[in-house]
Automatic annotation (TrEMBL), chain A:
GO terms for molecular function: dihydropyrimidine dehydrogenase (NAD+) activity; iron-sulfur cluster binding; metal ion binding. The keyword Ligase does not apply. Residues 334-363, 370-400 form the 4Fe-4S ferredoxin-type domain. It comes from Spirosoma endbachense. This is dihydrouracil dehydrogenase (NAD(+)). It comes from the Bacteria.
UniProtKB/TrEMBL annotation, chain B:
This is FAD-dependent oxidoreductase. Transmembrane segments: none annotated. PANTHER family: GLUTAMATE SYNTHASE [NADPH] SMALL CHAIN, GLUTAMATE SYNTHASE [NADPH] SMALL CHAIN-RELATED. Residues 28-58 form the 4Fe-4S ferredoxin-type domain. It comes from Spirosoma endbachense. It holds the Pfam family Pyr_redox_2.
């Protein structure tokens, strides 16, 4: 049995799965249910002031018959009275002392308001603070949320205000609504933050209702951009996470990974790319808290299989494999191979290659089943056929190196080698 | 022991004859299966459909809620795509070649999805097709079955005015009169015919039988071309003693009566023997059971390996608790007071393959005796030999001979469907009708060019 226990900035939790600051962490009722289900920690839904919500608030992107592959919301930070939230946070900490309790904050734009809010939260016995520099709707108009996260100087200033007062560890949550998360990440580090978390939601329109012509979510005939999240944003989140894990300044920080984490596999990927733990929201909004069981179980089995005893054994392990394009080995070459015994003759590889790639698949007509084979000399090793094949390991990519030695683009140019030789 | 009708209550009849392949309950249910479709290139299912429906395309259209487009894709290739979705032996056609079979996964339920789209089109009377302005050309079609209707629809779309002569009181042919009632309802058959003719330019004259009310010569004189789609209708005789006893019934007649007279009116025995093991035999056996027969026994002279029915069909009979006797061939029907009492069969064994490649049954000399009060003959159908002969149509034992262009030996007279091939699936007849229409259009263009 691997040890799933996590230690993030000294905040301990029995597993690395926290619930992200969002509707599921808005009140004692939900949080207690989450803890009972086995969640390692929660980031309490953002506390602040002056909040009034609208309805509807959520919309989703369905794809290929699957519901909610993408999700967006126009909900604001917690709309419950501050004193009730504070009381409930304290109660949850008392009832589940072994779980991580982080409180997300978004104070009004003044040093005093931040200090006041921090003092109130620290009185609850919570273990850490997360600064919401990411919320992309509603609060930005008042210079809060993503408006802070999009301006490194303001972000640094707010972090500095916070660090003057906070005695608890501070995590700064970054917005993805920027061309790079690194500048705000660096600014937050310079401001003194103890850790970073990312990503918050991405501004989006999930779709337009073809009957009313109003985009979703629908609010009395109008809509606004909502924050996108769920499985669809995972690749973007992973990329942004990796840039933070690679940067010499931000990589010094512990990182909490957020953005479409739905399964233990997603979590492992985030952690391999530098996250020390993960935060989950959309997946529990779709399935409830019970998904934690498989998340722990699956990660545990994977760790056992790989021989990892603790989380630290694999956190960040994949980061060094991300390099620059010009450093890739040009002599590495692969060609596709179709296993005729496994082939079901659907022709998807053929038409993908024929219409959109390199015409490297040969078709020989049959009734009703055609036969498909690779023209090895034409295959550039792009991988498309393998990706579209519906049968596991029917199409494999076979290594056929162009040369023994490692050769990258810089060296290739320096030697004046010929272009377009395959 | 007796042959009687009205054996069951109204509720029992309704339950016994309700749809055996129910439609999807909801859009979501259809989408789950539609989304499983891989959208194969040069799809095996399409190649295995006699009418070449672009199946991946129509299923893709369902996934995008483009049901009108989906229905058009189906019906453009097969105007009886609605009925075919209920009666086709898909296990040996489209669904049988679905690539999922090669992964040992259940195939896409193509027929059910096809029904999902076409039923909406027919229910809502979507005007999916528009005919070109009338060219003034006229074609006579004999028979409002699948071949005739399909031919008429293609011709009318091209602006040809079509008159169909149908000997029955309703259109649809085999679909209406020759298929188990739990597969298609009379109402559906009627709606389907109305949907086809709603295009305009097609007039059906009912109770007009070739050789009786209409003559081929008249049609030739009054129309630019004639299409014969008269099907195949007469049950093959067993040519054994006792065939004229009361209680010996022909499966075609039996099924026709079920479709035409209503379930309580159709008499059925306590103990019924069905001779043969094609689709018609299965339809007769299962329906005899569903009408209230106590025991139904299917007698087939070869083994399961040679049976013309599909396994899915055979299972229908088994699930209706019909029994099967393999390797038995009727020898004699015995009776008392003119009524059937026994069927005596030769026990057979298999010899060398015949011309169809199936092993020929040979008598072993042993016999078995079944106590029955009704015998239903479903040992194949024979074409209308006299009718075809008397009209000077070249034929092979009544099956009309056509060339590769659907043309008979009489100029301007074309033929297709069961009357040519001796009896195949509905979907084959629909394709034959399309081919016939194409040939007729070619014939008329050529004729016009030479005028």
């Amino acid at each position: 049995m691997a040890d799933l226990s996590a230690n993030f900035l000294g905040i301990k939790s029995p597993n690395p799965f926290w619930l992200a600051s969002a509707p599921p962490t808005d009140k004692q009722y939900n949080v207690l249910r989450a803890f009972e289900a086995g969640w390692g920690g929660v980031v309490w839904k953002t506390l602040g002031s002056q909040v009034k919500n609208v309805s509807s608030r959520y919309s989703a992107v369905d794809y290929g018959g699957s519901k909610v592959m993408g999700f967006n919301n126009i909900e604001l930070i917690s709309d419950r009275p501050l004193d009730i939230n504070l009381r409930e946070i304290a109660e949850c900490v008392r009832l589940f002392p072994d779980r991580a309790m982080i409180v997300s904050l978004m104070a009004d734009n003044s040093r005093e308001k931040w200090h006041e809010l921090i003092a109130q939260v620290e009185d609850t016995g919570a273990h850490g603070l997360e600064l919401n520099f990411g919320c992309p709707h509603g609060m930005t108009e008042r210079g809060m949320g993503a408006a802070v996260g999009q301006d490194p100087e303001i972000a640094k200033m707010v972090v500095e205000w916070v660090m003057e007062k906070a005695t608890l560890p501070v995590i700064t949550k970054l917005t993805p609504n920027v061309h790079s998360v690194v500048p705000t990440g660096r600014a937050s580090v310079e401001g003194g933050t103890n850790a970073l978390s990312l990503i918050n939601t991405i501004q989006s329109i999930t779709g337009v209702d073809l009957d009313t012509f109003v985009p979703n979510p629908y609010v009395a005939g109008k809509s606004v951009y909502g924050g996108y999240c769920g499985p669809a944003v995972k690749p973007i989140a992973l990329k942004m996470l990796t840039t933070i894990a690679q940067d010499p300044i931000t990589s010094r920080m512990p990182i909490s990974g957020i953005g479409g984490v739905s399964t233990w596999k997603d979590a492992v990927e985030f952690m391999l790319l530098g996250a020390s733990n993960v935060q989950v929201c959309t997946a529990v909004m779709k399935h409830g808290f019970r998904i934690i069981e498989d998340m722990c179980d699956g990660m545990n089995n994977w760790m056992d299989e790989k021989g990892f005893k603790t989380l630290d054994d694999f956190i960040g392990k994949s980061v060094p494999t991300i390099t620059h394009w010009e450093d890739l080995d040009i002599n590495y070459h692969i060609v596709a191979n179709i296993d005729q015994d496994k082939c079901i003759h659907c022709g998807l590889c053929y038409i993908a290659c024929e219409d959109t790639s390199h015409q490297s698949i040969n078709l020989s007509y049959g009734n009703p089943y055609n036969t498909y084979s690779i023209k090895e000399d034409e295959c550039v090793g792009c991988n498309l056929c393998k990706l579209v094949c519906p049968v596991d390991s029917c199409i494999t990519m076979v290594e056929q190196r162009k040369g023994d030695e490692y050769l990258n683009w810089k060296e290739f140019q320096r030697r004046g080698l010929p272009l377009n030789d395959h | 022991m007796a042959i009687t009708n009205n054996r069951l209550t109204a509720e029992q009849y309704e339950q016994n004859f309700s749809d055996i392949h129910p439609p999807f309950d909801s859009r979501e249910a259809a989408l789950v299966d539609a989304n499983r479709c891989l959208f194969c290139y040069d799809a095996p299912c399409t190649k295995s459909c006699p009418t070449s429906i672009n199946i991946p395309k129509f299923i893709k259209q369902i996934t995008t809620d483009n049901i009108k487009g989906s229905a058009y894709t189906i019906l453009d290739a097969n105007i009886m795509g609605g009925g075919c979705s209920k009666v086709c032996p898909v296990e040996k056609l489209c669904e049988g070649s679905c690539v999922f079979n090669l992964m040992d996964e259940p195939p896409i339920p193509i027929a059910k999805l096809q029904r999902y789209s076409t039923e909406k089109a027919i229910d809502h009377k979507w005007p999916l097709f528009q005919r070109k302005p009338s060219t003034g050309r006229k074609v006579a079609v004999i028979g409002a079955g699948p071949a005739g209707l399909s031919c008429a629809h293609v011709l009318s779309r091209e602006g040809i005015d079509v008159t169909i002569f149908e000997k029955e009181r309703k259109g649809g042919g085999l679909m209406t009169y020759g298929i188990a009632a739990y597969k298609v309802t009379p109402e559906f058959c009627e709606d389907e015919v109305n949907f086809i003719t709603s295009l305009g330019g097609i007039e059906i004259k009912y109770e007009q039988e070739l050789g009786k009310n209409v003559s081929l010569a008249d049609l030739q004189a009054n129309y630019d071309a004639v299409y014969i789609g008269i099907g195949v209708g007469v049950a093959r005789q067993l040519a054994i003693p006792g065939e004229d006893l009361a209680g010996v019934e022909d499966a075609i007649r039996f099924i026709y009566d079920i479709r035409e007279k209503g379930y309580p009116s159709v008499p059925v025995g306590d103990r019924v023997a069905v001779i043969g093991l094609g689709m018609t035999a299965i339809d007769a056996a299962t329906q005899a059971k569903r009408l209230g027969a106590k025991e139904v026994t299917i007698v087939y002279r070869r083994t399961q390996a040679e049976m013309p029915s599909t396994e899915v069909e055979l299972n229908l009979a088994k699930l209706d608790s019909c029994s099967l006797i393999w390797l038995a061939s009727p020898k004699e029907i015995k009776g008392e007071n003119g009524q059937v009492t026994q069927l005596i069969c030769n026990v057979m064994e298999l010899g060398v393959p015949d011309t169809s490649g199936r092993r020929t049954p040979i008598e072993t000399g042993e016999t078995i005796t079944l106590n029955v009060d009704m015998v239903i003959k479903a040992a194949g159908q024979v074409p209308f030999e006299d009718l075809v002969d008397s009209n000077q149509l070249n034929n092979w034992k009544g099956k009309i001979a056509i060339d590769s262009n659907c043309a008979t030996n009489i100029p301007g007279v074309f033929a297709g469907g069961d009357c040519v091939n001796g009896g195949k699936e509905v979907v084959d007849a629909v394709q034959a009708g399309k081919d016939g229409a194409k040939a007729i259009l070619g014939f008329m263009y050529k004729e016009r060019a030479s005028e």
